[in-house]
Amino acid sequence: MTIASGSAAVVCGVGAALPSRIVSNADLTARLNTTDDWIHSRTGIRRRYVAGVDLSTTDLAVRAAEQALTEGEPVRVEALVVATTTPDRCCPALAPTVATRLGLTGIPACDLAAGCTGFLYALATAAGLIAAGTARVVLVVGADRLAVLPDPEDRTTVPLFGDGAGAVVLRRGSMDETGALGPVVLGSDGTGADLIRASIPGTLEMDGAEVFRHAVDRMSAATCQAATAAGWELGDIDRLAPHQANSRITSFVARQLGVPDHRQLGNIAETGNIGAASIPVLLAGAAADGRLKPGHRTLLTAFGAGLTWGATTLTWPDLSLTHLPRGAGHDR
Ligand code: UT7
Asked: What keywords appear on the UniProt entry (predicted)?
């Protein structure tokens, strides 16, 4: 399904927050039957950031949002959408608490769960709120603590996941502005619901190889659809910003689409898979370290549990960013 908003949503702020604690592959090899070589060669991951008990998903969301609000245009936020599959509790949603901690009590605020595609679903929701006249400025946060999900003894899942949060601010604007979000392509397939499933604590189950295949196919197809919907050729893409689950997945996607290495953004070596936080943390890091520049025609695409997938276009705005999110600015 494609949602094209009547009035455009324009990105005017971006931020990210990662825990201070790093868990390297060497840390994992000390307690699991695995090797740095296996993890890095099969996934691209070298380390990940893992929150301690004193840092909740809500805390990460607040920190990312604060950075997005201080580093972008001065705006008054009128609604908040938080994408997460790892809220601190089932009920209530964490978004109202995040809003209150940001001094925004009273605004519409809700959570949204769409696995690792959550951030794109949240962008589409925010663009819809703007088009509907509900809000002129919407704060969108992707926050996850995926490291809490695997059985700590499971070498097939523990190395893959980390924790973090990223945020963007969207305001009402016009399609010809830099920062304008294009049509958002979204999809789901519940027949694959069992391919990645989790209950807390410690029971994440995933058919990795099958998920890998779906991820490549769905992200490639969604990217083509989003580019077409925006009137772009694939060759117009200056930067591909894919959800970071496995560097082999993103390489396959880029190869299928003909996007050369220097146009791909990645940070998986540093963060692992951080779910709904993946794309905004990637964008914040790449913008801060200069890999993503104002005017770059950027294609965002994601795939995750559900199954869910999505993609959209974004012409990167001119933001003055000073904070490089820890770990988010390094190799693919
Ligand atoms: O955000 C969306 C959600 N997730 C994803 O997109 C993940 C998608 N899937 C993947 O990224 C990959 O499938 C994995 C990284 C999960 C696994 O890589 P793979 O190349 O598909 O490996 P595999 O599952 O086929 O396992 C190959 C071998 C197995 O051993 P045998 O049966 O061949 O003897 C595994 O037991 O590698 C073994 N293995 C490990 N060995 C050392 C699995 N995990 C490890 C490990 N260390 N950590």
From this structure: Acyltransferase, Cytoplasm, Fatty acid biosynthesis, Fatty acid metabolism, Lipid biosynthesis, Lipid metabolism, Transferase
